[in-house]
Specification:
The structure holds two protein chains of two kinds.
Chain A: H1 7-13, E1 40-46, H2 52-55, E2 56-57, H3 63-67, E3 80-81, E4 87-88, H4 96-100, E5 104-111, H5 120-129, H6 141-147, E6 157-160, E7 175-177, H7 187-197, H8 201-224, H9 231-244, E8 249-254, H10 263-284, H11 287-290, E9 293-299, E10 319-324, E11 333-334, E12 355-356, H12 357-369, H13 373-380
Parallel strand pairs in A: 1-8, 1-9, 5-11, 5-12, 6-7, 6-8
Antiparallel strand pairs in A: 2-4, 3-4, 5-10, 9-10
Helix pairs in contact in A: 6-13, 8-9, 9-10
Chain B: H1 6-13, H2 27-35, H3 39-43, H4 49-68, H5 73-106, H6 110-122, H7 136-144, H8 152-160, H9 163-168, H10 180-184, H11 194-203, H12 213-223, E1 226-229, E2 233-236, E3 246-248, E4 251-253, H13 260-271, H14 273-287, H15 294-306, H16 311-320, H17 335-345, H18 350-354, H19 357-372, H20 389-392, H21 395-413, H22 419-427, H23 433-441, H24 445-454, H25 456-459
Antiparallel strand pairs in B: 1-2, 3-4
Helix pairs in contact in B: 4-5, 4-7, 5-17, 5-19, 8-13, 11-12, 14-15, 15-16, 17-21, 19-21, 21-24, 22-24, 23-24
Classes of the chains: A alpha/beta, B mainly alpha.
Chain lengths: 394, 461
Amino acid sequence: MTSPMSRRAFLQRTGFVGCSLAASPLITPVTFAATPWEARLVVIILRGGMDGLDVVRPYGDPALRDLRPGLGGGPDRGAHDLDGFYALHPTLEPLMRMWGKGQLGFVQAVSTPYRDKRSHFDGQDLLEAGTDTLAGVRDGWLNRMLQAVPGLTAQTAYAIGRSDMRLLQGRADVANWSPEAELGLSPQAQRLMDLVTERDPAIHAAWQEAQLLASLEEEAAVASGKQRKGAHERIADFAAERLNDEARIAAFSLNGWDTHKAQRNALPRALTQLSETLITLRKRMARDVWDKTAIVAMTEFGRTARENGSGGTDHGTGGMMVLAGGAVRGGRVHGDWPGLQSGDLYQNRDLMPTRDVRAHVAWIMRSLMGLDRATLEGSVFPGLDMGNNPGLLL
Amino acid sequence: MRAFDPELAEIRFGYGLSPHVAAPRDATAMLARLQGPDTMADTYPIEPFDTFRLRMIEVAKAAQIRRKNRGTPAAEAAKKRRNELNAAARKDGLTWAGHVLLRRIWTEDAFRERLVAFWSDHFTAHGKRGVIRRATSPYVQEAIRPHITGRFEDMLQAAVTHPLMLDYLDQSQSMGPGSQRAQSKKKNAGLNENLAREVLELHTLGVGGPYTQTDVRELAELFTGLSFAPEHGFVFRPKFAEPGPETVLGQTYADDATVGPVRAVLSDLAAHPATAAHLARKLAVHFVSDTPDPALVTALEAAYRDSGGTLIALYEVLLNHPSAWSTELSNIKPPQDFMCSALRSLAVPQDLLMRFGEKNMRLVFSAPLTRMGQEWQRPIGPDGWPEQDSHWITPQGLAGRVEWAMAAPEYILRVLPDPRRFVDDVLGARADDAVRFAAAAAESKSEAIGLVLMSPAFQRR
């Protein structure tokens, strides 16, 4: 019978730790092509449907109290007043400093073109595809943006974490990594792995990338002193480290927004992760890098304007986008407010979207990376009308 | 002509080759085993949910004692009792996981185990808070396993009205806005659409199916009253039920505040052509390829229709269809299947796994699965685990597999088989020169075994 052993002992016993892949001759040398821009873009997908009405509460709208007797409320119920109309969820208190410096903002009442079926999975697919319909679309909008810029390397953009990031899938090369994955093999085993996987291009490519990224992560871990943190903080650490270096784009997701029940307990958990993620990014990014950064957090749809029978909310339509970073015009809530009276709601149940979330993202990429409007409306978000500049960046 | 191949039957429709268990002779033998006695369930038992709920009663009792005796030694004792019950359920949960592994390692009827896994994923559910979080294996044992060869409708009825599903998708607290209970209670009384939506989108018609938001709403109203109590299991609460008839997909269901109309709508949904199309495609994708032969999907759909949704009829079509026997391996094994087929190829003895203990199970089973991207019994959403290969072939997922393949077999077995023989035992006719060379050239036995397990011929099926 096998005796209990610690995980470390288990790995050491098989010669598993301590061999640095960085020294391995198998590592493909990284070439750093000059990117045509210096700005950084971080896209966070909030999976599950964030309830924007509870995060940035329109307490100045008299209908809110009737729709949500158990949820929300303004400064009288612990929320932080933002501008006399909106108040921030109490859990996001740690972000008030960022708000005060003008580095945190929100856009209310936005949505993708997705309507009516309110499926998470289709909603997320459409948000990441960036199109009007899912028929025939296989790549994501962030990947199509990369395709439009010549001379980028795989290290320009990173999809981070275990979750599938469809918005970065497509023809342009993108690096994938999860800070939880570890890898350490003898040089001999590495060479033999190369040989064994050679005839399967998909497996072979993933293996090559795993080796390269393991070495990069090792460097990042050494630099940060290797404290044990939450997965979202480790992802933010890794993203900041890459963005301080040659990466220009990072994308990852945060789960836990599907608050059908007991939202007063469920939402703070997700919000804490969001706030820790944003704060980690700010702390770990170099000052001059942070100043050039726009962080965009978006979700597949908002939730019902009314609270449901279980102290939660169901799948809705109009939602909210979060903006952060030194490059954004923060300290304000953007977007046209549609109102919450029953005639104002979409299908008498959801917040009415007043603008396509893709238009906001397109304008951010227009300002941040200097992409022209024809590319953004033609290939990145095919068929989109960007409309007027909403002025989300400085 | 592509036709039945015993090795391929084990690889594609089972948990891979075993050095000790003979592969099935033909499709007829596979179907006969599938309809024969469930010997694995007897050999490696898992507690059914109806027994598991006694644990829930005990926990609820302890909580009640605590509430009524705050600050007294009785409350302290009750708290201790609750912690013991939770710890026991956690430990038993890992024992059942071990039994799931043993069934997959030692069965002669591996297709049955694959089908149980497939349908458990189709009806993904897990408990949310307290001891019920450990009840996934008992739910599968009770609501899924007995129905895998029978009528789909029976499985649908069992899964959708099961306490675990009602908990997972928030149905048990959903009340019709006009129900007696909502009228008498001011706060937190109302409808929850979660289960109704997922029944249409995931369990029956599929997301492309012919339903609207109004159908979701009406079905949610029809579902009001479905609930459970630890003392009884499933219960129908007439006071939660929305009065008045409801119309789903054009069919109106009468108002009699019983479970009757719920049974009727589930029966109609099971018989719907969109359900046949959805399930046919899903089976073909899961067992054959991400892009299955349309003729196979059509044949499965017809079998569903012609048999009134009898699942064994679909398996018969699947196992006798030429495109199911394409000699080229296609789908990547998800982490769980990769791990189980590795354990089967290593013929891990039952005594060893049964004495493994909680700590070791975490070390070599649950923690590595999570690192490979497939936490045990915890898919991210009610849609279960993704099918497409691109989801699983990622650098981080592969790093997790390499790490496990190179170290875990030796840790579990202590004495590894000769890698040069192992190549042929586990890959059969699919062993190529590269993997034979690697198995012989590796610096250690553990690396050699790991390399064989990491070869594309083992990773795909």
